[in-house]
Amino acid sequence: MGNLGWAEIAVIMVVALVVLGPDKLPAAARQVGNVVRQLRKISTGFQQELQNALDEPIEAEARRRGHEAVAQGPSESPSNGDPPAPRP
User: Could you give the dihedral angle defined by the CA atoms of residues 46, 48, 51 and 55, in that order, rounded to the nearest 10 degrees?
Assistant: First the structure.
C-alpha cells in the first residue's frame, strides 16, 4: 500500500474503529475497497492506452518494411543495408 508500513496501517485502522464504530466500519472498508479497485482499473486502462499509442508507430513502420520486403522479392537485398534473412 504505497509507502505505508504495518504500524501506520494499524494506527489508521484503530482511529477508524474509534471514529466510525464497529457497526459502520465494515461498510466504510467496503467503500474504500471499491474505490481502490476502480482506481486500479482506471490506472490499468490508462497504461494500456498509453502503451497502444506508443506501439502504433512502431507497428506501422514494421508493416511498411514488411510490405517493402515482400515487394522486393527474395532475390533482392533489403534497402537498409542489412543482409537478407535466411529462408527456412
Answer: -140
CB atoms within 10 A of CB 22: 8
Kindly state the helix (H) or strand (E) to which residue 16 belongs, with its residue range. helix 6-20
| Type and span of the H or E element at 32 | helix 25-72
pLDDT at 61: 84
Determine the Cα–Cα distance for residues 63 and 66; give it in Å rounded to an integer.
5
Q: Residue holding cell 472498508? A: 29
pLDDT in tens, 11-59: 988 998 899 888 898 898 899 899 999 999 999 999 999 888 887 888 8
CA pair distance 48, 12, nearest whole angstrom:
33
CB contact set of 7 (below 8 Å; sequence gap of 6+): none
